[in-house]
Automatic annotation (TrEMBL):
Subunit annotation: Monomer. Associates with 30S ribosomal subunit, binds 16S rRNA.
Keyword field: Cytoplasm, GTP-binding, Hydrolase, Metal-binding, Nucleotide-binding, Ribosome biogenesis, RNA-binding, rRNA-binding, Zinc
Listed EC numbers: 3.6.1.-
Matching CDD domains: YjeQ_EngC
Major localization class: cytoplasm
Extent of the signal sequence: none
Cofactors (names): Zn(2+)
Family stated for the protein in its record: Belongs to the TRAFAC class YlqF/YawG GTPase family. RsgA subfamily.
Protein name: Small ribosomal subunit biogenesis GTPase RsgA
Start and end residues of each CP-type G domain: 101-258
Organism, scientific name: Williamsia limnetica
Length: 357
């Protein structure tokens, strides 16, 4: 007679986002020696996990794959004296970027997120292309993006800066904040939902903003270089923290380079203004270049759409299409190698049988 799963104390897990969806996903793994947990921080071969009884260090080596577990994952853990992660529960969402090594593999930055906070420093000029790239990754994750304009106290005209950001982020809430004066922090807290992750380049004030939202200096911060305004990687791990008012927050290292994966559908959200114009084009497959009756081209000619925004749209679209083709090639190669492996094993089995006769 098998023993029934033990009752799990939920208070600590609820602080880290436990809910009905996660409970249902964990049910097949429930047992006397298995407990659920949420990954707080990942190291090589190990991770910190929030469990029903507190945060523990667990071994991740039983898992396979190049990127088997990431911050925000819900997992099943076995072993009291030597805990180990034995399964990663299905993700409801994932923040993904293209790998920096020019392969077709992707890196998962955070899992099971509801809000992506894009930190944009008002102390630096607006970099439209960077914001649009971050928005593409955010929309593609399945979460809701929010732009947090940071360091508003260092800007001569924060309202004008925010207006410039809104122009490249249609339909996205833009909140002007200052960790120094606390301006805008309540509005930003109200915009967060469930699990939020903060992303942006080094020097954007992500960790300072995260500390302000947490109400404690839980994350190391550093000054930016005066020469170019670039920051140093004071945050070296993606780490999950419980917010005092409920929900959780994941702080991430600065993204010096951000390759996008296949985000074709997300581009419709990033460039919703272009997508709306495209629906009025004379041809369904209009490339918005030389076709007659192109509503996008007409908007550019009339000054209603900036030509450089259209060019940035084309750039991201080309990169997304290229990533999609690379992913297809990788999947085809993996399938081919798997078929070869099966055939090789079958031939070995037949040779073994023949030797036994």
């Amino acid at each position: 007679m098998s023993s029934s799963p033990k009752e799990i104390p939920l208070a600590h897990l609820i602080k880290h986002g436990w809910g009905d969806r996660v409970a249902h996903a964990f049910a097949p793994f429930a047992g006397p020696s298995t407990v659920p947990g949420r990954v707080v921080c990942v190291y090589r071969g190990q991770c910190d996990v929030a469990t029903p009884t507190g945060t523990i260090r667990a071994d991740t080596r039983p898992l396979t794959g190049a990127d088997p577990v990431c911050t925000g994952d819900w997992v099943a853990i076995e072993g009291a004296s030597s805990p180990r992660v034995v399964a990663v529960l299905p993700r409801s969402s994932a923040l993904v970027r293209s790998a920096a090594d020019r392969t077709s593999r992707h890196q998962v930055l955070a899992a099971n997120i509801d809000t992506v906070v894009i930190a944009v420093s008002a102390a630096m000029p607006v970099r439209s292309a960077r914001i649009e790239r971050l928005l593409a990754v955010a929309w593609d994750s399945g979460a809701t993006p929010v732009v947090a304009v940071t360091k508003a106290d260092l800007s001569d005209d924060p309202a004008a800066f925010a207006a410039a950001v809104c122009a490249v982020a249609p339909g996205v809430e833009v909140v002007v904040t200052s960790a120094t004066t606390t301006a805008g922090l309540d509005s930003l807290r109200a915009a967060l939902n469930g699990t939020a992750v903060v992303i942006g380049p080094s020097g954007a004030g992500k960790s300072t903003l995260a500390n302000a939202l947490l109400g404690v200096d839980a994350i190391a911060t550093g000054a930016v270089r005066a020469a170019d305004g670039k920051g140093r990687h004071t945050t070296v791990h993606r780490e999950l923290h419980s917010l005092p008012g409920g929900g959780v927050l994941i702080d991430t290292p600065g993204l010096r380079a951000l390759g996008i994966a296949d985000v074709g559908a997300a581009l419709e959200s990033v460039f919703s203004d272009i997508d709306e114009l495209a629906r009025r084009c004379g041809f369904r497959n209009c490339t918005h270049r030389t076709e007659p009756g192109c509503a996008v081209g007409e908007a550019v000619d009339a000054g209603q759409l900036a030509a450089d925004r259209l060019q940035r749209y084309r750039t991201l679209q080309r990169e997304s299409d290229w990533e999609a083709s690379r992913s297809s090639v990788r999947k085809a190669t993996e399938r081919k190698n798997r078929d070869k492996s099966i055939s090789r094993d079958q031939r070995a089995m037949y040779r073994f049988r023949n030797r036994q006769r």
